[in-house]
UniProtKB/TrEMBL annotation, chain A:
<keyword id="KW-0812">Transmembrane</keyword>
<dbReference type="InterPro" id="IPR020537">
    <property type="entry name" value="ATP_synth_F0_csu_DDCD_BS"/>
</dbReference>
<dbReference type="GO" id="GO:0045259">
    <property type="term" value="C:proton-transporting ATP synthase complex"/>
</dbReference>
<dbReference type="Pfam" id="PF00137">
    <property type="entry name" value="ATP-synt_C"/>
</dbReference>
<dbReference type="InterPro" id="IPR000454">
    <property type="entry name" value="ATP_synth_F0_csu"/>
</dbReference>
<keyword id="KW-0446">Lipid-binding</keyword>
<feature type="transmembrane region" description="Helical">
    <location>
        <begin position="46"/>
        <end position="66"/>
    </location>
</feature>
<keyword id="KW-0066">ATP synthesis</keyword>
<keyword id="KW-0406">Ion transport</keyword>
<keyword id="KW-0813">Transport</keyword>
<dbReference type="GO" id="GO:0005886">
    <property type="term" value="C:plasma membrane"/>
</dbReference>
<feature type="transmembrane region" description="Helical">
    <location>
        <begin position="6"/>
        <end position="25"/>
    </location>
</feature>
<dbReference type="InterPro" id="IPR038662">
    <property type="entry name" value="ATP_synth_F0_csu_sf"/>
</dbReference>
<keyword id="KW-0375">Hydrogen ion transport</keyword>
<comment type="similarity">
    <text>Belongs to the ATPase C chain family.</text>
</comment>
<keyword id="KW-1133">Transmembrane helix</keyword>
<keyword id="KW-0472">Membrane</keyword>
Amino acid sequence: MITGSIAAIGAGLAAIGAGMGIGKIGSSAMEGIARQPEAASKIQTAMLIAAAFVEAVALFAVVVALV
Amino acid sequence: MDCSHVFDFKVSRLIVVFTLFLAFFFVTPLLYAQGDTLKTTSTEHAEPAAEKKFNLGKFALHHVADSHSWHVIGDITVGLPVMLYTPSGLVTFNSTEFHGDDEAKLVVEKDGQHFVKLHEKIYYASATANEKGEYADVDAAEHVKNLRPLDFSITKNVCTLLLSVVVILMVFLKVANSYKQRSGKSPKGLQSWIEPLIIFVRDDIAKPNLGHKYERFMPYLLTVFFFIWFNNMLGLVPFLPGGANLTGNISITVVLATITFLMVNFNGNKYYWKHIFTPDVPWWLYIVLVPVEIIGIFTKPIALAIRLFANITAGHILVLALIGLIFVFNSVFVSFVSVPFALFIYGIELLVAFIQAFIFTILSALFIGMAIEEHH
């Protein structure tokens, strides 16, 4: 028998969404660095900020699932 | 270059690890079954307490929460001062007077008042115990109806806060002194560890976002960066000086975000306020846009607080869940998988500790920069 809360499914869905989002950010940053290696540090900073925004959404879902 | 032999080696290692992992999952049910038969044969002298099921969720949440005592190892716990503000004045005692009770079963009497501790919260005790032996009025949904005194106790988190203040002061006073004594010379010792970080905050966080006015905000950005980073690292230390989940406490992160909120709005210039109340759009869009902009003022710091809180708490819960798997499956063999994996997560957490301090600081700088930006 399966037990547990349905909130876990929601947290999982949020993780999928955030995973796709961060994957896209990472791949685009890689492409950008490959085209323009001298801009690597600037791209990395921008990438981290964008990743933090995406990640925050997933973490909101985790918080909602926990509460 | 031909690297196929390296690849083969790695693949074979992966296969071994994966088989071991699967093997544990097949072996654990067997161990479970054996345990069951053993239990049935020795039911005469089986303790009911030992068969109490391990609750991973409760275990993890208990460990990330604040506490009135500091658990060291085994049964050894360090008591912390409890300070309660009641209508008849301040009441103080050591938390060891609860004798490790967290179920409201032990009543502490001080100055004619009775207190109980239930799930790390202190309540006024009920006159009589309920059917579970708790001196508290708990309803079916586990809501406690007892009143609470104002709690100013030095809890585990407050203790760590004070400790981190001492650590940060020690580090930075020493570094500041060596700058005075060794002016004009190359940095040495602790100085050469801190200097790159300060330059990192200045050149990568403050300057790109704040422009030529960056110097005014450097003290705040440096303070917030090092405070969050030191406390993230202290939270990762599993034994006594660390172990408290300070930056994973919503109150701490909300306070930090509130300071950023005040910094942004007190430094906001007329362009910032004009952008909020009279944006450059047709007037009939104001009905939608102005409320959205006003909500935006508040959502930015809220997101800042929740991001830090959730990141650090999620990391702690992840490590605890992996270690807790050993007790869920009730087998020592699970530890061969879960302990290395927990170690790996710990490595990532060291990185997250830095990245979250960086993200909080850079977003603070970004929001302040947006508020002080001049229009050309």
